[in-house]
Write a sequence for this structure.
């Protein structure tokens, strides 16, 4: 009973921290400027800004809006176009084709298995590559947000020791996240009512948490295995943290700040979920058979 209480408490804490980040994004720029002003006053290095004609736009809020417009706009428009235009058009054409022979029941039967296949194909061939592309394109914008929030709350980032190690870690993380997204889709296709949806939701919550906290842990010098193990060991908190983002996927970047400001609880860690283990093993196999083989030759 105590373990169940810890799990529920950790999940609730994660939800609250995630929601807090939605509102923190609008005030953090002001607090950072106040902190910088206090430091300048302490060091007697006050800079006069009376001659400045136009004020600078808040960096964090500006970057967040850029990321939200790019990711939310592209994702939302493409999903809306597919579900609201493409699928209904295909269904109408299919019904029209079968209507000449009076086989409307056959049309409904064909559509019952055609629709899931088309949705899975769209997710695999469009949503997944778009996720990887957005991860690569926006990593610089997201890193700006994470760096500013991290410097405000913790000071100078402690990055990985070498540039090559940083690049390798980033590439491996992108592969892991892409494979984990595929794993989440596969869980959603399991022929088990309700359970498949819950399991897929759990995967997406952990993926969103990794996506949000990764920049903070990267600034702390954590390598990818440590980041994944930490999420698996404390999955109740990260499930709760990623739950609002899994529901409101149109606001993808706002929890990046809350991921830097949150204090993950470590109480409920008695039952770790090794959900990342399959994709880590698969990614290791892919890298060993490609990069590892090219190095050996």
């Amino acid at each position: 009973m105590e373990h169940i209480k810890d799990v529920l408490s950790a999940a609730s804490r994660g939800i609250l921290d995630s929601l807090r980040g939605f509102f923190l994004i609008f005030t953090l720029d002001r607090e950072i400027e106040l902190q910088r002003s206090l430091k300048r006053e302490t060091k007697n290095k006050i800079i006069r800004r009376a001659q400045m004609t136009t004020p600078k736009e808040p960096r964090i809020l500006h970057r967040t809006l850029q990321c939200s417009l790019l990711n939310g706009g592209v994702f939302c428009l493409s999903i809306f176009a597919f579900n609201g235009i493409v699928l209904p058009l295909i269904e109408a054409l299919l019904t029209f084709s079968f209507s000449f022979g009076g086989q409307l029941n056959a049309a409904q039967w064909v559509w019952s298995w055609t629709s899931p296949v088309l949705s899975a194909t769209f997710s695999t061939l469009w949503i997944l590559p778009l996720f990887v592309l957005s991860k690569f394109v926006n990593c610089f914008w997201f890193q700006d947000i994470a760096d500013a929030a991290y410097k405000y709350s913790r000071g100078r980032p402690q990055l990985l020791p070498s540039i090559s190690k940083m690049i390798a870690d980033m590439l491996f993380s992108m592969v892991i996240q892409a494979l984990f997204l595929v794993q989440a889709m596969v869980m959603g296709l399991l022929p088990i009512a309700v359970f498949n949806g819950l399991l897929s939701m759990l995967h997406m919550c952990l993926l969103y948490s990794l996506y949000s906290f990764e920049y903070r842990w990267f600034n702390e010098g954590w390598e990818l295995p440590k980041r994944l193990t930490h999420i698996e060991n404390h999955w109740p908190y990260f499930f709760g943290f990623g739950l609002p983002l899994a529901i409101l996927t149109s606001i993808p970047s706002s929890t990046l700040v809350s991921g830097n400001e949150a204090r993950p609880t470590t109480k409920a860690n008695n039952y770790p979920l090794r959900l990342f283990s399959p994709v880590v093993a698969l990614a290791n196999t892919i890298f060993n058979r490609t990069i590892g083989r090219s190095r050996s030759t």
